[in-house]
TrEMBL record:
Transferase in keyword set: yes
Keywords, ordered alphabetically: Transferase
GO MF entries: CoA-transferase activity
Lineage: Bacteria, Pseudomonadati, Nitrospinota/Tectimicrobiota group, Candidatus Tectimicrobiota, Candidatus Entotheonellia
Family annotation (InterPro entries): CoA-transferase_III_domain (IPR050483), CoA-Trfase_fam_III (IPR003673), CoA-Trfase_III_dom3_sf (IPR044855), CoA-Trfase_III_dom_1_sf (IPR023606)
Name of the protein: CoA transferase
Organism: Entotheonella factor
Pfam families for the chain: CoA_transf_3
Keyword Transferase: yes
Gene3D superfamilies: Crotonobetainyl-coa:carnitine coa-transferase, domain 1 (3.40.50.10540), formyl-coa transferase, domain 3 (3.30.1540.10)
Membrane-spanning segments: none
């Protein structure tokens, strides 16, 4: 599957992707933006190919849905960069590349003679992006960090979960995805500098720093007020002793309703109280309060204890769709908590053609892929390539682009280099 029209935003640029399974998102973002991203796999295949779930539960390295999700729009070559011949080939590729993204331990590439300085000596315009748990330096730089360790050390686990239970992690591993996303953003910032100066650089991404930024006000609250934001389950702590309620069970799932004071949020709460009265679920105490006159996030535990039960009973009496439609009509800050099925069936995503069907000859079927993460009327993001098979583009790149002869390729294959 090749796009027959149009150039992407990054179509002139080439990316060498050496990332492990949890950092594939960096290259995926650049590939979706139109860059020629070459996924460099070990000859035995990238570990992500062995990660489930698998298409129709058939365990096969060419049917990993994880691999398909993160490598569509990329090309694939096999290369063992731990060998001298592999290192020489990577240097030849780097000579004409614009970006190289990697997620090895600090110093891992340098030990192979493939550090940023080594490659910049060949191609001064090259931008190398290194995504690691804690960055290239500091006392934690060499620590191993599976997702659980990383999420704990960002502080994110401390604020996630119920107040009377142990901290919990978010269900899907997020630690490296935050770093990978920051890696793509860092690559673009470095690229802007390169456009101005013609000089490449080494972008050092710490997943810990990237995910800590997602904690919103928790670090700032402590730094500015000495207030420790604790995990509160369905509630959100807004200060040392003030809270708001966010997540609520309803008839067929959950919704988020921001139960808080303030000029904006308060109007929505007032509308919710009025809606309750219209449906015969009036509460005099709630009606006695004008929530627009309360400060944002200033509801006390005593107020919550009295106010939450009647609102909770009302929300439990309606479905997600009924609550959503009523909230839109009444301008209430409330929205459904979507399940995977809700997302696939979402009319907004459908209208924007977010999910895209593509014929996949390997499985003799049409497969649904995620669509573009941003729209553009000049260079629209599109599905240009199916996820690559192992080493699918070896001949295309090694022979047609680097000029290796058939005999050389056979020797490299027999030696386990490609």
């Amino acid at each position: 599957m090749e796009s027959s029209n149009g150039e992407g935003m990054l179509s002139p640029y080439r990316v060498l992707d050496l990332t492990h399974e949890w950092c594939l998102l960096s290259g995926k973002i650049l590939a979706d933006l139109g860059a020629d991203v070459i996924q460099i796999e070990p000859p035995g295949g990238h570990p992500a190919r062995r990660m489930g779930p698998f298409y129709k539960d058939e365990i096969d390295p060419e049917r990993s849905l994880f691999w398909w999700s993160y490598t569509a729009n990329k090309r694939s070559i096999t290369l063992d960069i731990t060998t001298p011949d592999g290192q020489a080939l990577l240097k030849r590729l780097a000579a004409s590349a614009d970006f190289l993204i990697e997620s090895g331990a600090p110093g891992e590439l340098a030990a192979l003679g493939l550090s940023y300085d080594d490659l910049a000596a060949i191609n001064p315009e090259l931008i190398m992006v290194s995504v690691t748990p804690f960055g290239q330096n500091g006392p934690y730089a060499d620590y191993k960090a599976p997702n659980l360790v990383g999420v704990a050390l960002t502080g994110f686990m401390y604020v996630t979960g119920e107040s009377d239970l142990a901290p919990v992690r978010v269900g899907f591993p997020h630690f490296y995805l935050h770093g990978a996303g920051a890696g793509a953003g860092g690559a673009m910032m470095a690229h802007m500098q390169r456009v101005l100066t013609g000089q490449g650089q080494h972008v050092d991404v710490s997943c810990q720093e990237s995910m800590t930024r997602a904690m919103a006000n928790a670090p700032q609250s402590y730094a500015l007020e000495g207030a420790i934001i604790n995990r509160q389950g369905a509630y959100r702590q807004t200060g040392g002793s003030t809270f708001m309620r966010l997540t609520w069970p309803c008839k067929d799932g959950h919704v988020n309703f921001q139960f808080s004071g303030g000029a904006g949020s308060g109007r929505g709460v007032n509308s919710m109280v009025q809606w309750m009265a219209e449906r015969g679920m009036r509460d005099e105490y709630l009606e006695s309060v004008d929530f627009t006159e309360l400060g944002y996030g200033t509801i006390t535990p005593e107020m919550l204890e009295r106010m939450v039960p009647p609102i909770e009973n009302f929300i439990l009496s309606l479905t997600k769709q009924e609550l959503f439609e009523g909230a839109v009509e009444r301008r209430i800050l409330l929205f459904p908590v979507a399940t995977p099925k809700d997302i696939v069936d979402n009319p907004q995503l459908e209208a924007r053609q977010y999910f895209q069907e593509a014929a996949h000859p390997e499985v003799d079927d049409s497969v649904t892929f995620l669509g573009p993460f941003v729209g553009s009327n000049v260079a629209p993001l599109q599905m240009r390539r199916l996820p690559p098979k192992l080493g699918e583009h070896n001949i295309e790149i090694y022979r047609d682009e680097l000029g290796l002869q058939h005999g050389e390729l056979l020797q490299l294959r027999e030696a386990g280099v490609i």
